[in-house]
Amino acid sequence: MATHDDVRRIASRLPGAVEGEGRFGFSVTHKGKAKGFLWAWLEKVHPKKPRVINDEVIAVVVSNLTIKDMIIDSDPEKYFTEPHYNGYCAVLVRLAKVELDELEGLIIEAWRCKAPTELLRQFEAKPTLS
User: Fold this and answer.
1) DSSP assignment of 33-101, as one string?
2) Alpha carbons 23 and 28: distance in angstroms, whole number
3) φ, ψ at 74 (rounded to 5°)
4) Residue 124: its pLDDT value, please?
5) Cα–Cα distance, 18 to 4 (Å, whole number)
6) Which pTM does this prediction carry?
7) 4-125 is classed CATH 3.40.50.1220
């Protein structure tokens, strides 16, 4: 079972990763713009009311829609999507169901999708988070 603290520990060790303010999430800056690579899921609980934060689920960027489908198909108990994310390269992750090593791999790949070349090179020089 993973927690926000686990996510924070993994993501904060990635070069240039910054935790957002006001809502749980992480981004990396590229060309002066913050590029989010994971965030708390805003669930649509009632069709006529605003979305609400579901702390048990995070959205994690993936490289493409084929990878998204493969991840979801690998274990729908852990990974899923919703209509709001149709056509968007991100998968929703149930933290209570995902193992820490799986979570670390997802977070690193999400960061890679958004990190600028110089940070990717820095990470490749020392690819472990320990």
Assistant:
1) EEEEEEEEEEE--STTS--EEEEEEEEEE-S-HHHHHHHHHH-TTTEE--GGGTTSSEEEEETTT--HH
2) 15
3) -65, -30
4) 87
5) 14
6) 0.91
7) no
